[in-house]
Amino acid sequence: MKKRGPSVIVFLAICIIMSVLLVACGTDDTEESSMKLTAAGTENEEDSSMGKKVYFAAPLFSKSEMDFNLKLTEVLEKHGYEVFLPQRDGYLAAELEGKSEKELTDMIFEKDKSEVLKADILFMLLDGRVPDEGACVELGIAYANNKRCYGIKSDSRSVEINMDLNPMITGCFRKLFKDIDGDALIDELEQYLSSNEL
């Protein structure tokens, strides 16, 4: 039997976690929580076909990642989209100070899940050896709640043989913007938004 490399194992683990979270988000034990999730999904379903609220899902763990996220956000905002960018619009450092790991996890998960559910569109940056785990979960929540999903990728690395990305991720997107030249990718997005709505 052929051994699987660590990146394939990590990717498979991410897929399993995403599946579990999607089921958990849609089948909460309490009737009240279930009604809230359904209400949020239904409310946005009507608005999501035309709304311009965007949740920007992306890795944000280095200065270069955060700078690129901001550039893409500026393009979206220039074209009239209202963008929630976690690195800019999430919790302030002071709000997280002194919290336990469990408190931090709960706060960040609930905030980001809530913002995904409020959005009409999920816009996901797919750069990295594999797409960011948190962004994959956000994509799953968005897709399961009928949000319009778009992907963008400037990274040439790929985990799938003969495929750039896993079809369970790309299958969620209405459109995927790809170019290994980051500036050309921003230009492509600009041109698309000049004559199309997300």
Distance between the termini: 45 Å
Output the structural class: alpha/beta
Overall mean pLDDT stands at 80
Spatial extent as radius of gyration: 17 Å
**Tally of helical segments:** 9
List segments where confidence is low: pLDDT < 50 over at least 5 consecutive residues.
8-13, 19-47
Q: Label the overall shape.
A: globular
Helix content percent band: 55-70%
The biggest beta sheet is recorded as: 5 strands, parallel
Strand order of the largest sheet: 2-1-3-4-5
Give a count of the beta strands, DSSP E runs of length 2 or more.
5
How much of the sequence lies in strands comes to 5-15%
Order of helices and strands: HHEHEHHHEHEHEH
Characterization of this structure:
The protein has 198 residues and is an alpha/beta fold. Helices cover 56% and strands 12% of the residues. The chain has helices at 6-26, 31-48, 63-78, 86-89, 93-96, 101-118, 133-144, 167-170, 182-195, and strands at 53-57, 82-84, 121-125, 148-153, 175-178. The chain has a five-stranded parallel beta sheet with strand order 2-1-3-4-5, with helices on both faces.
Features:
198 residues, alpha/beta, five-stranded parallel sheet, 9 helices, 12% strand, globular
